[in-house]
Amino acid sequence: MGSSMCSVALSASLAEAGATLDWYIEKLQEQGGVCAICYEPCATGGRLSVDHDHGCCPGRKSCGKCLRGLLCRRCDIGLGGFGDDPELLYSAADYLDDHQLRQL
Q1: pLDDT in tens, 24-67
Q2: Which of 24, 29, 31, 57 has a C-alpha 20 to 30 A away from that of 39?
Q3: Would residue 74 count as lying in a domain?
Q4: Global pTM value
Q5: How many folded domains does the chain comprise?
Q6: Please, where are the H alpha helices in 1-104?
Q7: Angstrom distance (rounded) from CA 101 to CA 86
Q8: Residue 13, domain CATH
Q9: Is residue 13 part of a domain?
């Protein structure tokens, strides 16, 4: 009974994100069970988050047509912190590259 209750709760959570349980399972298998950005499993042991294009659907809810992939919490929050702006992310990566301590 426990696993069916978990499945129902997961389905409800996914529905809010605009995803189905079938989509989630397929994407999870496609990604090898890891985050699409850092390639690590969810550090908390929980499920990966459904990521969507916030330009299409601002906020937490999605229409389901703009789903991108599954992300760990750290990467999901990171993308959100940069407003899903690729140029800002490139700039941040350049900044880190330019300011790394050089080993002698």
Answers
A1: 999 999 999 999 999 998 877 778 989 988 888 787 788 888 99
A2: 57
A3: yes
A4: 0.79
A5: 1
A6: 2-17, 21-30, 73-81, 86-98
A7: 25
A8: 3.40.1800
A9: yes
Nearest to 40 by CA among 71, 3, 86, 76: 71
Location of structure tokens 């989509």: 23
Residue 46, in any domain of the structure: yes
Residue 103 in any domain: the answer is: no
First to last CA, the chain: 60
Q: What is the mean pLDDT of the chain?
A: 84
Task: Let me know: does 92 contact 82? Beta carbons within 8 Å.
Answer: yes
Q: Write the CA distances from 19 to 23, 32, 63, 69, integer angstroms.
A: 6, 18, 9, 10
pLDDT-derived band at 8, boundaries 50, 70, 90: low
Single-letter residue type at 60: R
